[in-house]
Design goal:
The protein has one domain. It has helices at residues 2-15, 17-32, 36-39, 57-68, 100-120, and strands at 80-85, 95-99. The chain is mainly alpha-helical. It has a two-stranded antiparallel sheet with strand order 1-2. Helix 1 (2-15) crosses helix 5.
Length: 135
């Protein structure tokens, strides 16, 4: 079952965070390798990604405009099917394009969280974590 294998990898990444981070970077590299933004760094080894410059939202605004005008390949592996809205913790909320690939990744993350909750329910008793932006 794909879901159980995915959950096992997630638990493995909790036990060995370095392995988990490398696995996540390899997955993201495969998914986004065809985008213009990612291809700039395609020759870097996975460990080399720690040297990437940190970009602020204002620096990627031009790329986001290109995505909105149909040039999704600058940032996404597929056309956006929705837009998420950030919480705006460092300013006003920001629109973030979401592709079907992103939705699949988020769905798997949610499934892992539900399985983890079921297995760790006693440990989490009385704790509530909400990842829902304020309305």
């Amino acid at each position: 079952m794909r879901e159980l294998a995915c959950y096992s990898r997630w638990v493995g990444s909790l036990r060995d965070p370095a392995w988990g981070q490398e696995h996540a970077m390899e997955l993201l590299s495969r998914i986004y390798s065809e985008t213009e933004a990612w291809s700039r760094y395609a020759d870097l080894p996975i460990q080399g990604f720690t040297r990437l410059p940190i970009a602020e939202y204002r620096q990627v605004r031009q790329l986001l405009r290109a995505v909105a005008q149909g040039e999704y390949h600058v940032l996404l592996p597929a056309p956006p099917v929705a837009y998420a809205l950030s919480s705006g913790s460092t300013g006003s909320p920001k629109a973030i394009p979401i592709s079907d690939v992103d939705i699949e990744l988020r769905t798997m993350s949610a499934a892992r969280a539900m399985v983890a909750y079921a297995e760790l329910r006693e440990f989490l008793e009385g704790v509530c974590l909400s990842n829902i932006p304020p309305q």
